Amino acid sequence: MKNSLMMNFSVDKEKKKIKVEREFAAPVSKVWAAWTESKLLEQWWAPKPWKAKTKSMDFKVGGTWLYAMVSPEGQEHWSRVDYKAITPQQSFTAKDAFCDPDGNPNPQFPSSVWTNVFKESAGYTVVSIEIEHQSLESLETIMNMGFEGGFAMGLGNLDELLLTM
Q: Cα(49)–Cα(71) distance, rounded to whole angstroms?
Protein backbone atom coordinates (compact mmCIF):
# COMPACT_ATOMS: atom_id res chain seq x y z
CA MET A 1 0.00 0.00 0.00
CA LYS A 2 1.20 3.51 -0.73
CA ASN A 3 2.27 5.67 2.20
CA SER A 4 0.06 8.58 1.17
CA LEU A 5 -2.85 8.91 -1.19
CA MET A 6 -2.97 11.61 -3.83
CA MET A 7 -5.23 14.62 -3.38
CA ASN A 8 -5.38 17.69 -5.59
CA PHE A 9 -7.61 20.65 -4.74
CA SER A 10 -7.87 23.70 -6.98
CA VAL A 11 -10.14 26.71 -7.32
CA ASP A 12 -10.75 28.34 -10.71
CA LYS A 13 -12.39 31.66 -9.90
CA GLU A 14 -12.72 32.63 -13.57
CA LYS A 15 -14.78 29.51 -14.35
CA LYS A 16 -16.40 29.48 -10.86
CA LYS A 17 -15.31 25.88 -10.26
CA ILE A 18 -13.66 23.84 -7.57
CA LYS A 19 -11.83 20.73 -8.70
CA VAL A 20 -10.85 17.92 -6.38
CA GLU A 21 -9.04 14.77 -7.40
CA ARG A 22 -8.61 12.14 -4.68
CA GLU A 23 -7.19 8.63 -4.72
CA PHE A 24 -8.54 5.82 -2.54
CA ALA A 25 -6.92 2.46 -1.76
CA ALA A 26 -9.98 0.44 -2.75
CA PRO A 27 -11.70 -0.86 -5.87
CA VAL A 28 -14.27 1.33 -7.59
CA SER A 29 -17.14 -0.90 -6.42
CA LYS A 30 -16.44 -0.03 -2.76
CA VAL A 31 -15.76 3.67 -3.40
CA TRP A 32 -18.92 3.94 -5.52
CA ALA A 33 -21.00 2.31 -2.77
CA ALA A 34 -19.59 4.72 -0.19
CA TRP A 35 -20.71 7.70 -2.32
CA THR A 36 -24.13 6.33 -3.27
CA GLU A 37 -25.55 4.44 -0.25
CA SER A 38 -26.90 6.52 2.64
CA LYS A 39 -25.79 4.14 5.40
CA LEU A 40 -22.21 4.42 4.13
CA LEU A 41 -22.35 8.17 3.37
CA GLU A 42 -23.44 8.82 6.95
CA GLN A 43 -20.23 7.19 8.19
CA TRP A 44 -17.84 9.54 6.39
CA TRP A 45 -19.49 12.61 4.82
CA ALA A 46 -19.25 15.00 7.78
CA PRO A 47 -15.92 16.23 9.17
CA LYS A 48 -15.44 14.92 12.71
CA PRO A 49 -16.82 15.56 15.29
CA TRP A 50 -19.88 16.35 13.14
CA LYS A 51 -22.10 13.52 11.86
CA ALA A 52 -24.25 13.17 8.75
CA LYS A 53 -27.87 12.07 9.23
CA THR A 54 -30.03 10.97 6.28
CA LYS A 55 -33.73 11.77 6.28
CA SER A 56 -34.28 10.20 2.84
CA MET A 57 -32.26 9.01 -0.15
CA ASP A 58 -33.26 7.76 -3.58
CA PHE A 59 -30.12 7.37 -5.68
CA LYS A 60 -31.54 7.51 -9.19
CA VAL A 61 -31.89 10.17 -11.87
CA GLY A 62 -34.55 12.51 -10.50
CA GLY A 63 -34.03 11.20 -6.97
CA THR A 64 -32.74 13.10 -3.96
CA TRP A 65 -30.65 12.76 -0.84
CA LEU A 66 -31.96 14.87 2.06
CA TYR A 67 -29.53 14.98 4.95
CA ALA A 68 -28.28 17.07 7.85
CA MET A 69 -24.81 17.78 9.15
CA VAL A 70 -25.24 17.45 12.91
CA SER A 71 -22.91 19.15 15.40
CA PRO A 72 -21.86 17.46 18.65
CA GLU A 73 -24.37 19.77 20.38
CA GLY A 74 -27.18 18.57 18.08
CA GLN A 75 -27.37 21.63 15.79
CA GLU A 76 -28.52 20.57 12.28
CA HIS A 77 -27.57 22.10 8.92
CA TRP A 78 -29.73 20.60 6.16
CA SER A 79 -28.79 19.97 2.52
CA ARG A 80 -30.49 18.46 -0.47
CA VAL A 81 -28.83 16.66 -3.38
CA ASP A 82 -30.81 16.25 -6.63
CA TYR A 83 -29.38 13.54 -8.89
CA LYS A 84 -29.27 14.67 -12.55
CA ALA A 85 -27.25 11.95 -14.32
CA ILE A 86 -25.87 8.57 -13.24
CA THR A 87 -23.63 6.10 -15.05
CA PRO A 88 -23.23 3.23 -12.54
CA GLN A 89 -19.70 2.65 -11.23
CA GLN A 90 -18.43 5.53 -13.44
CA SER A 91 -19.99 8.93 -12.70
CA PHE A 92 -22.87 10.95 -11.37
CA THR A 93 -23.94 14.59 -11.54
CA ALA A 94 -26.07 16.26 -8.88
CA LYS A 95 -27.21 19.67 -7.70
CA ASP A 96 -26.35 20.39 -4.07
CA ALA A 97 -28.17 23.07 -2.06
CA PHE A 98 -28.71 24.10 1.53
CA CYS A 99 -32.34 23.63 2.58
CA ASP A 100 -34.75 23.28 5.47
CA PRO A 101 -35.57 19.88 7.06
CA ASP A 102 -38.32 19.37 4.46
CA GLY A 103 -35.94 19.86 1.52
CA ASN A 104 -37.05 23.36 0.55
CA PRO A 105 -33.96 25.18 -0.81
CA ASN A 106 -32.58 28.11 1.19
CA PRO A 107 -31.96 30.91 -1.35
CA GLN A 108 -29.74 32.76 1.15
CA PHE A 109 -27.05 30.11 0.66
CA PRO A 110 -25.29 29.04 -2.54
CA SER A 111 -26.03 25.91 -4.52
CA SER A 112 -23.66 24.06 -6.84
CA VAL A 113 -23.56 21.27 -9.40
CA TRP A 114 -21.20 18.38 -8.67
CA THR A 115 -19.86 15.96 -11.27
CA ASN A 116 -18.02 12.98 -9.79
CA VAL A 117 -16.05 10.62 -12.04
CA PHE A 118 -14.70 7.30 -10.71
CA LYS A 119 -11.73 5.51 -12.34
CA GLU A 120 -10.00 2.38 -11.07
CA SER A 121 -6.40 1.42 -11.74
CA ALA A 122 -4.32 -1.28 -10.03
CA GLY A 123 -6.72 -1.62 -7.09
CA TYR A 124 -6.90 2.12 -6.46
CA THR A 125 -9.78 4.40 -7.38
CA VAL A 126 -9.42 8.04 -8.33
CA VAL A 127 -12.50 10.21 -7.86
CA SER A 128 -12.40 13.43 -9.90
CA ILE A 129 -14.89 16.00 -8.65
CA GLU A 130 -15.86 19.21 -10.39
CA ILE A 131 -18.09 21.59 -8.42
CA GLU A 132 -19.59 24.38 -10.50
CA HIS A 133 -21.03 27.48 -8.86
CA GLN A 134 -23.45 29.98 -10.41
CA SER A 135 -21.35 32.95 -9.33
CA LEU A 136 -17.94 33.86 -7.97
CA GLU A 137 -19.70 35.10 -4.82
CA SER A 138 -21.24 31.64 -4.33
CA LEU A 139 -17.86 29.93 -4.72
CA GLU A 140 -16.18 32.36 -2.33
CA THR A 141 -18.96 31.92 0.26
CA ILE A 142 -18.42 28.16 0.28
CA MET A 143 -14.65 28.53 0.52
CA ASN A 144 -15.02 31.02 3.40
CA MET A 145 -17.25 28.50 5.19
CA GLY A 146 -14.24 26.15 5.35
CA PHE A 147 -15.16 23.83 2.49
CA GLU A 148 -11.60 22.79 1.61
CA GLY A 149 -10.63 21.70 5.12
CA GLY A 150 -13.99 20.14 5.91
CA PHE A 151 -14.14 18.18 2.67
CA ALA A 152 -10.55 16.96 3.09
CA MET A 153 -11.47 15.72 6.57
CA GLY A 154 -14.51 13.91 5.19
CA LEU A 155 -12.42 12.24 2.50
CA GLY A 156 -10.02 11.11 5.23
CA ASN A 157 -13.03 9.59 7.01
CA LEU A 158 -13.79 7.74 3.77
CA ASP A 159 -10.27 6.25 3.79
CA GLU A 160 -11.00 4.88 7.27
CA LEU A 161 -14.38 3.47 6.23
CA LEU A 162 -12.94 1.75 3.15
CA LEU A 163 -10.53 -0.18 5.40
CA THR A 164 -13.53 -1.79 7.13
CA MET A 165 -15.59 -2.62 4.04
A: 7
Amino acid at 31: V
9 contacts 20 by C-beta, under 8 angstroms:
yes
User: Whole-model pTM above 0.90?
Assistant: yes
Contact between 49 and 157 (Cβ < 8 Å): no
On the 0-12 / 13-18 / 19+ scale of CB atoms within 10 A, 140 is: middle
Q: What is residue 62's three-state secondary structure?
A: coil
Residues 78/102, Cβ–Cβ less than 8 Å: no
Distances (CA, A) of 1 to 4, 47, 122: 9, 25, 11
Residue type, 117: V
pLDDT tens digits, residue range 83-140?
Answer: 999 999 999 999 999 999 999 999 888 899 999 999 999 889 999 999 999 999 999 9
Closest CA to 18 of 161, 133, 137, 135: 133
